[in-house]
Specification:
Layout (H helix, E strand, L loop, with lengths): L2 H6 L2 H5 L6 H8 L5 H11 L6 H7 L5 H12 L6 H7 L9 H7 L2 E4 L5 E5 L4 H5 L5 H4 L3 E3 L2 H11 L1 H9 L15 H21 L1 H33 L18 E7 L6 H9 L8 E8 L3 H8 L7 E6 L7 H9 L6 E4 L5 E2 L3 H11 L4 E10 L6 H23 L11 E4 H6 L10 H11 L3 E11 L5 H22 L3 H8 L1 H25 L1 H5 L12 H25 L15 H21 L18 H22 L4
Parallel strand pairs: 2-3, 4-5, 4-7, 5-6, 9-11
Antiparallel strand pairs: 1-2, 7-10, 8-11, 9-10
Helix pairs in contact: 3-4, 7-11, 8-11, 12-17, 13-14, 14-19, 14-24, 14-26, 19-26, 21-22, 22-24, 22-27, 23-24, 24-27
């Protein structure tokens, strides 16, 4: 509850007589705030892990510059503006990591007269940081400046160091960045493998075809068993989040930072701000960081025209390589103020009480639960056939398969958004692999390798379903390329991986990645069995009897029926039921994945770190009465789905 709500309840009449703390008395004495507002802010602070100053300026009671001016007058300090601060900032002292300065929000300065100073936002912070600051900064005289201006000054003064650290944050043994040192070797191996394959195919076409069919059939069976086991676990035991306790005691709510990477998102920026403003988490504890690329001047200009709330800000990532979402998040991580780090995508529409649920769950969860994954859904499922198919796929994955895998005790790949981490665990692992284009899946297994667990939490975020063919293929090819990369990185040392994951999760890792990639790449070999089912000649007729070919064809058909049944269950809820007639058409959706897989395979060889950006805002570009009605219906459906999830009926 914020100060405005407390005012409406008349709480200030009860609290105004309470003794104020030192900071509150200072601001009242300076005339910056009233005694009643100071008492109300202290009341909020009893329930929120936030400073008095932050409560006041995020609630709009006092501007940050007014608070700084009052502190400076009382303590005899000087207040620096953003421009002057940037001009006086110096690089981090030798032996000091500039990322620590960002977290401390402390900037070393040298004045025009050569005097050294330390910029802080509050004189009291010097006492709190005394044991952490290096000796060279510990006893410097202080000047005051806004926290975010201090961070910007530190970033500018240490630009090159911070840029390099962002792209190499993860340990090299768990990163794919080492591939960039041997591109010629990768090309040579690819050429050799392709040559051998072509020669063998020319000499023994039936044998090569049989090998591919055999592997495709084997991975088909494994994938079907894997999916069926997850489905059975989800349906038999129930949703794991139903039994997850949520803390509701007197413990203070923690500060939560949310990273929102944006790149060429001019179409959707205004909608994003509106959606994030609906979050009900106390704004004094909410730190939303809009992560922008330096060369993306269009998005920067768009945001500059928007009056961002005090709890939301932009961080500009210096241009560098690779230009990927994980590199940008690595850079922005140290700007965050929260103990919990969340991720949203540009088009996301999160459940309003989502962050409250996450914060309370982390307070109740054991320390080894380092990540919470929310449920993703789509707010434009009625737009066209592709959007409907994508929504069915997501409903199956996030509502059935992923909770089932978690219940089976397997390590799970993360979903890219609506992710929340304990900050200390995330930093221990080095954040994200800047070179992996599916950084979320990679991080899910790195968490598991280091002894951490991921839980699924029953809160929904609406996303925009990719509803155009080529943008869908580009997005899916990036995901598949990242899956290939993640598998190869973690399998550098299979024995180590098995020891870290344990046998059960190790084989689950194999089943998930090997079958996923094999099935999309080898799907055409399985499709050939439609020829057998239709009574037409098949390439393997000279090798195998018609009975064996028919058995394989029936196996293929049986797995398709299993998939249809699981998809149907996934969308059988009252707010997805309109998708049931479209479930049988999922068979025609699958070939798009094969197109994406071959694009991914090509890029794995020639451009492994290329980030093929997903275009957002396509649903917002639709015009006309029918499109408006569809968008409105989708928004209503999403609100109902989120309400249903809050009552654990999904």
């Amino acid at each position: 509850m914020g100060i405005s709500e407390l005012r409406q309840l008349g709480a200030h009449h009860l609290e105004a007589a309470d003794a104020l703390d030192e900071k509150g008395r200072e601001l009242v004495q300076a005339g910056t705030i009233s005694r009643g507002d100071a008492a109300l802010a202290q009341m909020v602070a009893r329930h929120c892990d936030a400073s008095l100053d932050r409560i006041l300026f995020t609630e709009g009671i006092a501007a940050e510059r007014e608070i700084l001016a009052a502190r400076a007058k009382l303590h005899g300090n000087r207040v620096l503006g953003r421009a002057e601060l940037a001009a006086l900032a110096t690089p981090a002292p030798p032996g000091t990591d500039p990322r620590q300065l960002l977290k401390w929000r402390a900037a070393p300065l040298v004045t025009r007269h050569g005097n050294r100073r330390l910029a802080l936002s509050d004189p009291a912070r010097a006492r709190d940081l005394r044991d952490q600051l290096p000796a060279s900064l510990r006893d410097l005289p202080h000047v005051l400046a806004p926290d975010h201006a201090i961070q910007d000054a530190v970033a500018n003064a240490n630009r090159d160091v911070l840029t390099d650290l962002a792209q190499a944050r993860v340990d090299a043994s768990e990163s794919c960045r080492t591939w960039s040192a041997t591109p010629h070797r990768r090309l040579a191996l690819t050429l050799c493998a392709l040559t051998v394959c072509l020669v063998l195919t020319a000499l023994y076409p039936a044998a090569v075809f049989s090998v591919f069919v055999g592997w495709a059939a084997l991975t088909l069976v494994v994938a079907a068993c894997f999916k069926t086991a997850a489905f059975a676990a989800r349906m038999t035991v129930g949703n794991p989040v139903d039994h997850a306790p949520i803390a509701s005691g007197p413990e203070k709510l923690p500060k939560v930072s949310v990273l929102v990477p944006l790149y060429r998102e001019t179409e959707i920026a205004h909608a994003l701000i509106t959606r994030l403003s609906r979050l009900t988490y106390p704004k004094c504890l909410l730190d939303v960081v809009l992560v922008l690329e330096e060369e993306d001047t269009l998005t920067q200009k768009t945001l500059a025209e928007i009056d961002l709330p005090a709890w939301m800000r932009a961080v500009i990532v210096p241009d560098g390589h690779p230009r990927t979402k994980p590199r940008a998040m690595n850079y922005a991580l140290d700007f965050c103020e929260g103990d919990i780090i969340g991720i949203f995508d540009a088009e996301d529409a999160p459940d309003p009480d989502q962050i409250t649920m996450v914060a309370r769950r982390f307070q109740a969860a054991p320390p080894d639960v380092a990540c919470l994954q929310g449920i993703l859904d789509y707010y434009n499922p009625r737009q066209n056939w592709l959007a409907r198919s994508f929504t069915i796929e997501y409903a199956t994955w996030f509502r059935l398969i992923l909770p089932g895998l978690a219940k089976l005790g397997l390590a799970i790949p993360l979903g890219g958004t609506t992710l929340f981490f304990r900050r200390d665990a995330l930093e221990e692992l080095g954040g994200w692999d800047a070179h992996n284009v599916t950084e979320d899946a990679d991080l899910g297994f790195r968490l598991a390798r280091h002894g951490y667990r991921t839980e699924i939490i029953g809160t929904v975020t609406g996303e925009e379903a990719n509803c155009r063919l080529w943008p869908w293929v580009k997005q899916r090819s990036r995901w598949l390329k990242g899956y290939m990369t993640t598998y190869l990185v973690h399998m550098r040392s299979p024995r180590l991986l098995r020891r870290q994951l344990g046998a059960w999760r190790f084989w689950g890792f194999q089943a998930h990645f090997v079958t996923t990639v094999s099935q999309v790449l080898l799907a055409p070999f399985l499709w050939s069995f439609w020829l057998v089912l239709l009574g037409l000649p098949h390439p393997l007729d000279p090798v195998l009897s018609r009975e064996v070919l028919m058995a394989v064809g029936k196996l293929f058909l049986a797995v398709e029926m299993i998939n249809i049944a699981i998809h149907a269950v996934a969308v059988s809820g009252r707010f997805h039921r309109h998708l049931l007639p479209w479930v049988p058409l999922m068979h025609f959706y699958a070939p798009l994945g094969t197109i994406a897989a071959y694009k991914a395979l090509y890029e794995m060889i020639f451009a492994p770190f290329f980030w093929d950006k997903t275009t957002h805002g396509l649903s917002l570009k639709s015009t006309g009465t029918d499109a408006d009605a569809t968008a409105s219906k989708g928004a209503v459906d999403l609100a109902r789905i989120q309400l249903e999830a809050r009552h654990k009926r999904f």
